[in-house]
């Protein structure tokens, strides 16, 4: 199918997406906190909201980047190079500072409705500038600027990322207490995740930078 990337690229994206899913961030902190304080239903609602935000990010990035490519292949290349620089910075920052997961374990006086948890998930996801930058810089690393189906590939990769992350995030919420406790008990595991994430992201950044210089 025309929107499917090259198998090697698809495999690389899959590995990177899994590592990204397992790396703590605002979305993970939100749905785990809601699961711990208000129950699994609230955690799943917050997760659904975050995933809704990711779908919106995917569509905005895909249509925006494909429009940029249609206007100027050079401009698209500039975006990819800027993305490579950002990903390299992200890799270095992860190694230097590590991942942090701050969970709100205090029960709220009044539990939020599932709709409220869903809306909060969307808000935190859409308003997180790191996610905006990541989608704009990460997805282009896996598409060919000369491919006429670049928009379809960007949409496919973004939606595939959301679907791929579901089994992992569902498992996190289902075992929220044990999962959060395991993260706190195993800082060495988190550092391994940090280095793995940094290695993969840094590798993509260097690959696109060297490819563009040829």
TrEMBL record:
The keyword Thylakoid does not apply. The lineage of its organism: Bacteria, Pseudomonadati, Pseudomonadota, Alphaproteobacteria, Hyphomicrobiales. It is a multi-pass membrane protein. This is Threonine/homoserine/homoserine lactone efflux protein. It comes from Breoghania corrubedonensis. One of its GO terms (cellular component) is plasma membrane. The chain crosses the membrane at residues 12-32, 44-63, 69-92, 113-142, 154-174, 195-213. Pfam families: LysE (PF01810). Signal peptide: none annotated. It comes from the Bacteria. GO terms for molecular function: amino acid transmembrane transporter activity. Its main location: membrane. Keywords: Cell membrane, Membrane, Transmembrane, Transmembrane helix.
